[in-house]
Description:
alpha+beta; single chain; 12 strands; Aminopeptidase; twelve-stranded mixed beta sheet; about 35% helix; binds coenzyme A; globular
Amino acid sequence: MTDDDVDGAVRVQVEAFGDLARREGETPHPITDSVLVRSRARHRHLLKHDPDGAYVAVEGDTAVGCALALRRNDLWGLSLLVVDPATQSAGVGRRLLGAALGYAAGCDRAVILSSGDPRAMRAYATSGFALHPQVHATGAPDRGAIPALPRVRVGGVDDIEFADRVDVAVRGAAHGPDHELMMSQLTSYVVDDTAGQGYAYVRDDGHVYLLAASDDDTATALLWQCIRDVADLDLPVTIEHLNDGQQWAIEVAYRARLTVQPAGPVFWRGGTPPRAYLASGAYL
Ligand SMILES: CC(C)(COP(=O)(O)OP(=O)(O)OC[C@H]1O[C@@H](n2cnc3c(N)ncnc32)[C@H](O)[C@@H]1OP(=O)(O)O)[C@@H](O)C(=O)NCCC(=O)NCCS
């Protein structure tokens, strides 16, 4: 993949996830200008920092598929795998995954946050990854359930080194340059006291984007803060990538009276999902 492929790859991403949403009986997310700007920034960021993990499939001059993978310390992650709906089920996704997995050479651990597409799940499960079921939680939060949160403060660029230290302790790998991008795009919160350390990002469309903490109580406080943030915006909240290690978060979701439903699984190779952690689909 090169910079010239970004617009085509973003188009494939929009088409593939729109089609998946329709097949799953959901309404595709509206593709606003800010969604496109954010998607292009994600592609360019990964192309810059992980050029050897970025691949496109082309037919003539047209992009028909894209894979973006990243490596942070010993951890490899698949940020994106999409194939144009008109080209799906013809082996392109499998080949793109194989290319992106070449970039995992030398990494001890690897993670993929899967969609519910059976082809994606099959490709990951048959590439040496273990499947861990997940749910997601959505809805308008019950404001009355939100507790006082004296430990939480707003984060900022000065917290990036701190956040990397939390990452290393919680998931064994820093996010490095991803924090710089996330700090510029998202609202962040931090807890750093004698009881625990952690950080969280929340997006202005109501998505809890990424959360990492030393312990369940700190993670719980950060998650409630994100929920409060979204409630203040009068938006529904979305919390994704909850697996069986994250009962603390599932409890918060039910207390906030969100709807919890099955979602695509997370796949791990050489490791298991961190506990006080909610992964980012893009930066894992
Ligand atoms: C998921 C996706 C990337 C797969 O790419 P693809 O080119 O359509 O898939 P492939 O043709 O390479 O098939 C992958 C595997 O699924 C199998 N498969 C094909 N159709 C299938 C079906 N209907 N049900 C189950 N498995 C199927 C293939 O046989 C192949 O397995 P194999 O190599 O062991 O034979 C693509 O379908 C897509 O973009 N889906 C929507 C977006 C998405 O969910 N992306 C994944 C995000 S994690």
